[in-house]
């Protein structure tokens, strides 16, 4: 696991991985930039298992943290480009689960006709697949990544 994730993450100052038991691992990054890049990055998997990452606070026990929340980038299709905005992204993101951020970069590039919204998902609950609009039943949510 260590060599695979180290090759994938390329931490500049290194990472230490400790098996805590109960299918939990403690990742110790030696530079905050490395840790933030991993936490902010894609959803991570190892051997087809989703890695649920959480930043430890001072005094927190790593076995006490409920590892059930994962940030996902989702694509929201069939929204007229003129309506793309952070306020709409926030509204739709909170409909899906919990809004985290809106990716307003690259709008209009490469014919991107969808909004990218990062949401926090509780992996114990099914994802809402559709939101019906009064005027159009084609609005769909897609996991991006």
From TrEMBL:
Indicate the segments forming the DUF4283 domain, all copies.
1-57
Highest taxon listed in the record's lineage: Eukaryota
Q: Which InterPro entries match?
A: At4g02000-like, DUF4283
Give the protein name, as stated in the record. Answer: DUF4283 domain-containing protein
Q: Which organism is it from?
A: Gossypium laxum
| Top-level taxonomy | Eukaryota, Viridiplantae, Streptophyta, Embryophyta, Tracheophyta
């Amino acid at each position: 696991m260590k060599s695979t994730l180290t090759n994938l993450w390329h931490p500049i100052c290194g990472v230490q991985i400790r098996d805590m038991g109960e299918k939990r691992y403690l990742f110790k990054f030696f530079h905050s930039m490395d840790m933030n890049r991993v936490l902010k990055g894609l959803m991570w998997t190892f051997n087809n298992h989703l890695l649920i990452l959480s930043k430890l606070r001072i005094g927190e026990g790593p076995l006490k943290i409920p590892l059930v929340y994962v940030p996902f980038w989702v694509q929201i299709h069939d929204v007229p480009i003129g309506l793309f905005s952070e306020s709409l992204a926030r509204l739709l993101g909170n409909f899906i689960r919990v809004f985290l951020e809106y990716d307003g970069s690259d709008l209009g590039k490469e014919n991107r006709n969808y909004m990218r919204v990062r949401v926090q998902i509780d992996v114990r609950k099914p994802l809402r697949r559709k939101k019906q609009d009064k005027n159009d039943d084609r609005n769909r949510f897609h996991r991006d990544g």
